[in-house]
Amino acid sequence: MLNNQGVTAMPFQPFQVTSRLNPHKLLLSKWTAVSPANKEKHFLVTMVIAPQFPGMGIDVIQLEAVHSGRSFSVRWRELADSSQWLQGWQ
User: What NCBIfam families does the database record attribute to this sequence (predicted)?
Assistant: First the structure.
């Protein structure tokens, strides 16, 4: 696309931060639910669950809701889904 000075103009694309998650650094990290339910918006990783068999990678973590204290397990890779989770407390 050329502008009035004959210079090619690129369409605007918002900057996206893509950070890689490391399962070994997730313990005590803070997360915000994009769609909170039951006033549970802020969560803390309280446990990184060791694999069942030695040599396998970490797959499951435990999240605890700050408001209610309710805990549940999820696969740590689900935290990378920005439609469900945001890193930090927002």
Answer: TIGR02450 family Trp-rich protein
